[in-house]
């Protein structure tokens, strides 16, 4: 009997997207191929405690959001003498769980931004998704836009404000934005996802309140020109060349100003989705190529969802952002787009784990010292 690959499903986290992670992890565990993989659920609570959760108990809960049971044993990551990654109980001699690959299902800061990837690299672990550099750049809206612009992708006008400059002279920050941009403008924390801390400003008098909230989540904030646009998304899966799914279009409900956090996760009628997006064949091909270019330019691995604005007036696609660890909930667009393009959710999870192991083997084969 072939030994199963042990997959640590890492979920929770300390970011503002904690609840989204619980939903994503529930779906990943539900669709993991148990004939090939043995799950090792590891949670991180809002205080930062790492705990080994019981897979059977989680399955019995059958919850839409994966629970974090407070009494579960606390663990730390450790490396055995032969280089195997272990989930080791804190201060105890209890059984240590060997891990073959980590599937991080944590969104936002301290995971999607490269912090978790650096930890896993130091531990010598195989893991799903991009490495440190692509994760950090992809999470940073300003740096991602700069690099994809160098690769030839159109980007809407924007400016960046720092928390320090804003505290020193809020009037100067507002004046700089007004000099470069027209209303409406969107205010976005540079290092957050899921539309957390994002505001649409239609009057310059409202800029201060929007910045105050955005700076609660990050020290750098994007002030971006609003575009009369359709919101188009493409899922990209690693490969040679990368595979781009058919695009989808998000339509925020009339009760929402834009596709906000509330529209995404809290309002059942917050948005409708066209999958595939109502694009011409030429537009579909164009946005798929742009998505693959962004994926390659940022040196992503595994997966990414690339978001675009389609200008209703000029017909131009503008790069909005890239998500290197997109949502994996039952209604998340990345798995839905892949399924609509011929790759069902369970097969997608399997392929992502295979890609993680392939990338890990490739990196381990590299020389780490000069041998002349």
Task: Summarize it.
With 372 residues, this protein is an alpha+beta fold.
Question: What labels would you give this structure?
Answer:
single chain, 372 residues, Rossmann fold, D-amino Acid Aminotransferase, Chain A, domain 1, 6-stranded antiparallel sheet
Q: Name the helicity range.
A: 25-40%
Number of discrete domains: 3
Number of strand segments: 17
CATH architecture of the largest domain: 3-Layer(aba) Sandwich
> Which shape, going by the Cα principal axes?
globular
Distance between the termini: 44 Å
The quaternary organization reads as: single chain
CATH topology of the largest domain: Rossmann fold
- Which structural category do the helix and sheet elements fall into? alpha+beta
Beta content comes to: 15-25%
Q: Provide the residue-averaged pLDDT.
A: 89
If you compute it from the alpha carbons, what radius of gyration comes out, rounded to the nearest whole angstrom? 21 Å
Order of helices and strands: EHEEHEEEEHHHEHHEEHEEEEHEHEEHH
CATH top level class name of the largest domain: Alpha Beta
- Please mark out the parts with pLDDT under 50 across 5 or more consecutive residues, or reply none: none
Largest sheet: 6 strands, antiparallel
Number of helices: 12
